Protein 1
Amino acid sequence: MSGSDEAESGSPALSRRRFLIGTAVAATGIGAATAAAVHDGELGGPPATFRGAVPWIEGTADVPPGASGTDYRFFTPAELSFIQAAVARLIPNDAVGPGAIEAGVPFFLDRQLAGKYGRGAHYFLGGPWPKGTPQQGYQSRFTPAQLYRAAIPAIDRYVGSHFSGRSFDKLAASDADTVLRGLESGAIALGDGVDGKTFFTMLLQNTKEGYFSDPIYGGNRDMAAWKMIGFPGAHYDYKEWISRHGEPVPFEPVSFLGRPGWTRGAT
Amino acid sequence: MTTTLKPVDAVLVGFGWTGAIMGQQLCDAGLEVVALERGPWRDTSTDFSTGFAQDELRYMWRHHLFQNVTYDTLTIRNNTSQEALPMRHLGSFLLGTGVGSGGVHWNGQIWRFLPSDFLTKSHNEQRYGKKAVTDHDLTVQDWGITYEELEPHYDQFDRLCGTSGRAGNLNGKIQPGGNPFEGPRSNEYPTPPMIQTYAPTLFGEAAARLGRHPFPHPTGNLSQTYVNPLGAQLGACTYCGFCEKFGCGNYAKSSPQTTVLPYLMAKTNFSLKTECEVLRVELSADRTRATGVTYVNSAGEEFFQPAEMVILSAYVLQNVRLMLLSGIGKPYDPATGEGVVGKNYAYQTMSSVNVFFEDKILNPFIGAGALATVIDDFNGDNFDHSGLGFIGGAYIAGMVTGGRPIEMIYTPEGTPDWGLEWKHAAAKNYLKSFSISVHGSCMSHRGNYLDLDPTYRDVYGRPMLRMTFDFTPNEHKMSDYVTDRAAEVARAMNPREIKINRRVGSWSVVPYQTTHNVGGAIMGVSPADSVVNKFLQSWDVPNVFSLGSGAFPQNAGYNPTGTVAALTYHAAREIVTRYLKTPGPLVQV
């Protein structure tokens, strides 16, 4: 079994995905989705008619499509070098809390871009494609994966022509920050059909997603970002704490994968 | 090849809150009803169980429960001089799909509009003069219905949901602890208000010190277990902080699933068909009667479902679009002001004030969708607008819907969005900050409307809906004024600092604001200036009813669901008691 996320397949292999995720997380307390029924809130299934009863099918829980394995499936080595250098500046490491690298954000980004998000699920990409106003939001023809693929070399070309032939990952921290700020403000024009500001907005958002989302998706390693801010994670019951105003809640964070010392077999 | 199906008494187009309520009412009257829902079946144990419901990435940022814009979106622009472009990714509003639709992933904020909200034009004109309701090209109208007419149906929805709250006005008598500005209620809330956590408590104390009138927000997040009149059992909220954008794993949030479906789905005269998208309403040759609807399922098969009544119970944007695609009513033209379908599209005017404490631990993750202490002193016409240059208002809520860290980390004024400084600010402030919400009305305006896009089409080849919208000077002035009042409360809490997030500039589709889209199929007293009558019945095709917030001629400063549901019950009562006996127009003109 090489992996449990749907990213490995270009087509939505729903039944296989369900089965694999179910087995991957069954030991951690999430109900196992062992049936091969199609039941997906995003892509829909075959048409159905219901009459006379509330339908319920055993084993169809719509469990999260977590990441597994450690291999990279989307980024090329050059792209990965850029991503590591960029996210290390977006969320640097220090004693206060983990940096994006330490939280596993590059791996998270890789799996997101290799999967449905990267393919533009929940984006409308049909034409025509005029630029639009800032208020009209995302107007690129690119899927997120295509935008990363196009933007990274475009940024490296820009950096090469402005910083004596270097690539982004070889820049000093202060120069890297200058480039990132230029992308953020729109001051840097990349050309080749890539809008640097659009890419920066997406990269920063995805980086924060990888930093703070449930570790089942491959980022937020050891829930260290949650520990840093004091978020207890996937708890669902705080009734005893409602009226205890101002008291620190002493819960260790917990994820869908459990936590050390609580989940058998988890590390 | 279109297959014609066996005729039914009523077909429901869309199966969220309004479809579920109307379906239950019509089935109880003995009608054969079929509901067509374009999304999938969804229920608590399979789709948002407590084992995996608290997933910010999947539900909020990957839109797992929302309408997938890949297959259907709309085009947007701020004014008619611009070219409308597709909303390529959800942002400003998060449209629902599937069984229960937005009723699954709403916050559970249950409000009634003020009596004066239903008389936006006449009330404000009488108190502030004609200019007040016509300035800035405002096109506000009266609703053609009164609070008193709707009250029994607001009450019906409260009893369905088990709404938790405290009455402020019982049969005209002001009650301590409730909202003293609300219209008279015939009954106390079915369940007591939620217990307030630290931040809403501090907000309420500060507001009271300023002479305001704080009260607990009415919630569809239940303070205790409850069995509703349909026999559905709801659980007590556990304050997990995952309501809006999420389904409730705990049966503690009022939704079609937790309140209506256990009863309705068991009925033998009710059928639900999922993954079935209605393409258009079919009309008789003389266009005075709907004969049924044509729909296509996810297998690509096309059907004609004949029906005696067609109930548009999809979201406002789909209802309006189906009317335009089907030729029901005359489309609105902003250049001439003629026509009605698509007229008076409006939204909600949102702003906020972030509050940062140095040493108070607020634990924002202990939250619920409607967990708030609220003041209503500056909503609607609860205050004197003389000389202010605007009509309308907003409620101000010290609200903690949750502390989901990708979305809800507040950092002080001047903090960059990334880098060490951002990380340090996030680490320092997460537990000690929260946001005061300013939830403002949105008046209707001559240039804000819905029509069909000339360029972009959906997967079925139908024109997309085109939305032309911007905030007007009336809304900016209102929002600035009430945001200043919110900042006063924020400062009275004696925080280390505050950050004021004003409603600035043109409406943008990018940042999330609210999914409170209204208008376009507005109700009124005359076919000359409205699409439906007070019973939500089309003036042009009287066996078509259009439910939902499309009926609002402008938006009040409250969340719409309570009023949407009350209007649905009101329409259902009239259909059952009068229309079924004598099908035809329920209001004569």
Protein 2
Amino acid sequence: MTCDRLVTYDAGVTDDDAVFKALADPTRRYLLDRLYERDGRTLTELESELEMTRFGVMKHLRVLEDAGLVVTRRAGREKQHFLNPVPIRLVHDRWIDKYTEHRVAALSDLKKRLEESA
Amino acid sequence: MTTMTAQATQVYQVFIRATPEQIWQAITNAEFTERYFYGTRIDTTADRRLTQWEKQVGEDPVLEWDPPRKLVHGWHSKWNDELSAEEPSRVSWELEAQDDGTTLLTVVHDQLEGAPKTAASVSGPGWTRVLSGLKTLLETGEPLVG
């Protein structure tokens, strides 16, 4: 199995910027949702789901690949696109947990107290 | 939210600021795996991959052993009866050193056609938690909490 990577990763490798940028576009989120439904799709398959030129879809896929959210692999003559959820997990661990932890804890404490006093 | 049919081939990728040798050690040595792999102790040699989680032990064949570049082994979930009744699948780990001192780790879990429940159980948080935990452990020396 060979991994077909087109992208040169430089300073952006461990940077969340590329992930946020990639997610900040409805077409790219739409493409991720399509891959979430069914992975391993080709450009032609993905293109058929969008009213956009092949070039436009390629451009969006490129941004998703740069951010590590899409990984391509060759299977025979086909280039398949896979959703890679790891960068989203890392953003989640770094940014979401940090801000939601205390609120969730406060709510679960509140629930516990209300249930105890009931 | 759309519903998901778990995929028969799943691909995961992460850059880790560590050498391929360090990552190889962390994925084949139980002292490391128990800190990021849901507490599972996993010892892998050229012949087999031994897993131990609480009192359950398992053994999967090693299909390719090329340290520190590529490891391919069988996968047979054993932590509940429903999953263990399914057919075995396959996991490949590929490690590629990058020019900037990081290593690109690619995990491919495939041949899941005969194991749809296993496919569902390893997708979503399954592999992503393992890989983000492995990254955190190697980069900071601390396992992820929770």
Protein 3
Amino acid sequence: MSIAAEIRVRRRIVLPTWASGLAGEHALLVGVAVLGVLVLTALLGPVIDSDSATSTAYGTLHSPSGAHLFGTDDVGRDVLVRVFHAIRLDLVLALVICGLATVAGAVIGLASGFAGGLVDLVVMRLVDIMMSIPVFILALITAVVLGNTEQTMVLAIAFAYTPVAVRIVRSQVLLLRELPMVETSRAIGTPAWRILLWHVLPNTASVLIAQATLFLAWAILDTAAMSFVGVGVHPPTPELGAMISEGSQYIVSGQWWISIFPGIFIALLVVSFNLVGDSLRDYLDPRSRR
Amino acid sequence: MTEPRVAVEGLTKVFRHGQVRAVDGVDFAIAPGEAVGIVGESGCGKTTVARCLLRLVKPSSGSIRFDGAPVLRLSGKGLAAFRRSAQIVFQDPFASLDPRFTVQRTLGEPLRVHRIARRSEIATEAARLLHEVGLRDDFLPRYRHELSGGEAQRVAIARALATEPSFLVLDEPTSALDASARLKVISLLRRLRRDLGMTYLVISHDLTIIRYLCDRVLVMYLGRIVEDAPAGELFAAPQHPYTEALLSATPDARAKGEVMRIRLHSDVESAGAAPGCALAPRCHRATDECFVRPQRLEPIAPARLVACHRVSAGEVTLPSWLDTEPLARAGEERR
Amino acid sequence: MSEQLLEVRGLTVTLRSRRGTGRIVEGVSFEIARGESFGLVGESGSGKSMTALSIMRLLPNVAETSAGEIRVEGRDVLGLDEREMRSLRGGSVGMIFQQARSALNPLMRIDDQILRVAALHGRTNGKGEALAVELLREVGLPRRVARSYPHQLSGGMAQRALIAIVLAARPQLLIADEPTTGLDVTTEAEIYDLLRKLRAELGLSLLLITHDLALVAQNCDRVAVMHAGHVVEIGRVEQIFERPLHPYTQALLNSVPTLEGDADEALALEGSAPRFDELPEHGCRFVERCPQRMPKCGEPFTAIELEPGHRVLCRLYD
């Protein structure tokens, strides 16, 4: 048993040893390390330097220097300070979006999968319709319909992600529902809600957690993108997408730092969340366990 | 006559909008304390019968009585009592245990659901159940991946025992186990039945398991019972051609060398449409009549029923020791 | 020695993993003559499948043959390069598995799969269609199966189709790893009838790997019993079944459910085999479970031949 299980785990990886290491545990480590640094700076930055994000006292359009590592922008604000404030805001927004989408997806997916029949049919057709529209467009439309504020943007993006989570949870539930594990519980007489809570939800968790991490990456991107086109977070609030948008007009005249630095940090955040998410998914994949 | 523990009448289960008749009008009864086996190839409907009995699958028609109570119409307290009295153990012990549950929590589930033990008593009660199935209580904190197949199956059995059931369905209880673990589980099941006086329904494709565990055997073919006989008689003198073929196909380590070989013709292509016996296209004894004449389960001796007109018409010779005198009486008693 | 089709000498397979290292197959020796049917029995984890995979050089990356010699038709398998190995795999040695359907390509018709193997081993010479039909007839499948896809076949038919594909390369030795696990007894009996017929007609040798002693008794000439990576006993089937010497073989035989005899007299085997990373450095690996263990059982030892061809790995017979 143990040998067979061991072999099954290893066989999935066809890369040479060094490459599989890079793709596996190392990716998780790199992702976690980068994220850790970013989160720490996001948390500490504003504490150390609380009111300088909107301060315009540094002179306009200075290129990066010892005094202002990332330079200053068109109204004389320090780009570095604003980037750190923006990371904090974007992380908070991403967390809220991810939480909303994951919880909503879990609840709807569990109910739909376990109930089956007509309920399931209706839910899944709705999910299909939502998933046929690109996530960004769907979020954009929703935000415009609900009104152009930070809160509505968060709701809109979460709404757009929910069907993804519903699908994942439901497919897990359908798998689990047929297992002798769940049938035994039914034979014992365990009520349906307890079966869901005890056996189905915990066994869905690993897949859901991995997806939630990917939601964080998507949310960073989509929040930035929405703000870039002027939906959601508005200037002068520091937000990475909005900052790129503000700085974009200066790129042609040579003041690249206003847009580039927020862009680099979006990329860093997204890549590290993706690394963590992908390796978590591989690591938690129920097929590799037993 | 005592009331049967389980009485099944006209049980039918149709899947996929009437295309597949998994179980097709099955009748049988199990007396209290009796161990009955159902054998047949995969797809013969034996597992569906078991699931219907425990109300895990809703039958298309038919009735099931448990200690006289109509199982399909139970609800509330009656259903809870039924769930306590009838338990099931599945084939794959790993699939039937939650990977995230410790043994103690697994055993605690029925105890909590039926309020058999208080939260504080669960550990002691779980340990007692483990002893019952021959495991030490240091298994309590273990997870399923820390168990061998045999140990996992014992845990599954212990969980089934938690509610002190009077009736246990064993669905291929040893098919996923190694030789040594298999025999231990069999002897455990024999001991439990002797000590606790339980009633068993054993589902298996393996006749040797049935022989060790059961008093009476039902042979199923394509959703119907084709033979019903006391275990000893069935193994000594199978009557239905299908039973014969099953027995002769079962490998036996002691019967080395040339073995009796009755082979059914290869996998069936078109079963169902014909009005006659479903086995006819594969049967080594089939005549033209078999293809047109419907078969019914008919008594041929006390406590023996066979669904083969050639056997009941006496065209196939019965062993001389089989007493055919009190046929009619036996037929009456069964009802 | 050349009448031996397969010779395995002192084969040792080492498994390395995060959990530890262990010789999951150690000092395994046996040989299979042309036309012979040989059984390798043991419980799961006993190393029987690993032994078979070493013959095909198909061990997973975590395991490697660390000692020993394997010869097929006199050729040293472990010394062959990858190209020669490919002609050996499928060519001289064919292998069938349990779950035949998952060993078949789901997107290809059966006849195409047969012809592809035949072409690889240079056996088509223009009569493709006929060859496929002939092979299918040989394994007892109707002509129409040629144009079927794997999902259209039942489990038994899929196993027959797999055998036909393997036969397309005209192997000398067929390795069958639990070929009927998961199939019904009636289908199982048919598959073994087929294997028996193929041996008689084509002079094929068979290496049957199974946990089921009854199948070995009915289908093999000789048998090796494996426990925790050791061959504990080897001999002709009647020697092993009538005069089992090793306590493990005796216990295993006692634990086989049969259609005759008293169910209560059967004796269960206590405990379980040691895990691969907890194997003793030397000496007997059955000692923990053995009812007749002695102090000297922990010492290094070798197999003893007690009657011609009947060897046992046990200190009881010193």
Protein 4
Amino acid sequence: MILEIRDVVKNFNGFCALSNIGMDVEEKKIHALIGPNGAGKTTLFNLISGMYDVNRGEISFKGMRINGVKPHLRTRLGIGRTFQIVRLFGFMSVLENVMLGRHCKTKAGLLKTFFRFSMREMQEEKITRENAMSWLEFVGLTRKANEVASNLPHAEQRLVEIARALALGPDLLLLDEPSAGMNPREAEELNSLISRINQMGKTVLLIEHNMQLVMGISDVISVLNFGEKIAEGNPSEIQDNPAVIEAYLGRKR
Amino acid sequence: MILQQLINGLMLGATYSLVAIGYSLIFGVLGLLHFAHGEVLMAGAFMGLYIILWSGLPLYIALPLAMVATGMLGIVIDLLAIRPLKKDFHLAPLLSTIGVTIIIQNLAVKLFGGYGTRFPDAIKTVHYKIGPILISSINILILGVSLFLMVVLYFFIAKTKIGKAMRAVSESHITAGFLGVNVDRVVLITFGIASALAGAAGVMIGIAFHAITPFIGLTFALKGLVVMLLGGLGNVVGAMIGGLILGMAEVMSIALLPTEINLQDIFSFGIMIIILIFKPAGLFGSRVTQG
Amino acid sequence: MDYLISVATIAGIYIIMALSFYLPFMTGQISLAQAGFMSIGAYGSAVCTVKWGIPYVPAVLIGGIFAGIVGVLLGLPALRIKGIYLLLLTLGFGEIVRVVAINLEYTGAAEGFPGIPYQKYTLLYAYGMVLILIIFFSRLRRSRMGRAFQAVGSDENAAEVIGVNIISAKLLAFSVGAFMAGIGGGILAHYQEYIEPLMFDIMHAIEFLIFAIFGGIQIFWGPIFGAFVLTFIPEFLRAIQNWRMELYGALLIIMMIIRPQGVIGLDTVQVVERLFRKALGNVNRVKIGSL
């Protein structure tokens, strides 16, 4: 298990966003998290990536307890993520955005930047650039490398965000509604992109509303509603699960 | 003795409330902490000063006149420095208001000199003895006017159509726009009201301290912002209460710590730092985080 | 000619100051403390040369380092504070430095610190430092830390999740910026031969902000341009000298309205690079983006 979540509770000023969440994410699988809006899915992502701390419960990554560990350290451990609303650094170029993915894996500090005596720093910069370009190639956007990030159409910005997260070299990739705002063709390409990411040996945890995408690609699906996990299983189990149908469609009168 | 100081504190605090309410209103509709609001207060104080000095009009006419004049200044600021701004650069409004601050303050120094200008006696200073404490007519005037304005404002926002529009715009520009509200006009009116209140506060301060300088703008900008932190950003009622609390706390600190250095300003500055470090969202919580 | 040299020297020093504002600005920290740091550097280096007989270059460096250390101290609380509140914090800091300087007998108190040894090659030292800073910033732009700074300035939370240590990034930018300001102060002190607390007040801090914001915030050439132009032009238009600050304020507002990124932007740099390439032809291909 690459990620283990045990009895997690998260409150916001009295509002209970998540209660008694337990979930295991198996390595090298594609694990989807679905549920109606407001179910707490993004909150769970925020807890995993470290933006918030849990009120109760434990989160373990690669067997190590990560409660209270700061976000940038979790990144170093191997957790990468994208956001529900694209959060690229708008005024920087696409390439620069992706190059930032390698920040925690490189070391050149301010002094070394200025003095640039060692060949090692120049090598490092070159490697970072090449690494970033290769990820851009992976998502199919090399031609836009020098464009200002905020100028790209929405779907391409999402791809850049994924490339940036991949440049981190994560073992676990959290994708928050990556297909939001994409048309069917773009969603198709996203589908194959996620497969390719998984084939590289990376574990993918995916929040999605696009059921076609989810059913087609996931190994395991967990369903959240009102902050609780109401079902878990493979796609066909979930599709037939009455509790899930009820959560999405409301109680049948 | 403590009670005596409390009365002064209330008086001071009432002026802080007036300033802070202006900040809250503008923050509510624009999400902007109006750096130049203190300068508006200072301009209002001077306008009031000269209205009283040159026209000899009694206070109950001169004050509304000063408020109207200051309100118009606020409207001009909105029209020239805020409204034309493009939405992309999120720091633009803050920087623009810094520009406004420089212009107003330097003009004021040129017009009125860098030293204090004596504020004309607007009312007769009479002292009333109530039990062990001495209340001056100035105390009563300032408290009375401030409370009156706050009550009027409260009903204005709660009951009138424009007030409702202001509240709608505070919630969301987009939604308010869908509902047919002319967002730009609401912002304009808010600026006018906030600035008029600042003008009133300025005149009150002139009366209380008997002199004003072109530099009081920054001091009150600071105090107003501290009150915002105390009462919660965008929270008008919080601003009212916070102002009174700050005023009383300041007065207490002077009374209890007798030193030569002007601790007053450092006191509110210190409070600001402490709150920001330990509770960046303000004491009573804000609707949005500061920034 | 002498006159031109003196204006150019001051412009050089102000370029250093504008860049010292720019570095923390890249990480999203708007600091009005640079005048205060300049003061620390000025007084620090003056004490070194006048009272302790230390030669020019080490003295200026010591002044800068001293400012940098204070920069770390101020930078720590500043980490949690943003926007207008950071403005006030840094403003307050500047005021505290000024008040301390006014009261410090050792360095002349309010009367100022006279008798600082004149450095006749100040022009060279100033522009030498500018050159060093140009190399620094251009290397920064194409480097890991530079990207990190920009990311922090653009979206702090996203940067943190990407793996950037925002605390060390902001602290580093802030303290190195303070160091630069200190160096600027040291160079100024040994040019004017006399310094006093009033030379490092709020209006100067705002001036440095305006140089950078007007000049352009997307790339380090902006603050250089802004400081240079805004120092020279008032010298040659005598008529506007008295209205310098008001003009700066108006300029700030106008820039925010028509071109918030400042005069020099990424687009400007691209145009210049294209011209360079045309001029040099294929014989000497200039590496694109090397500026």
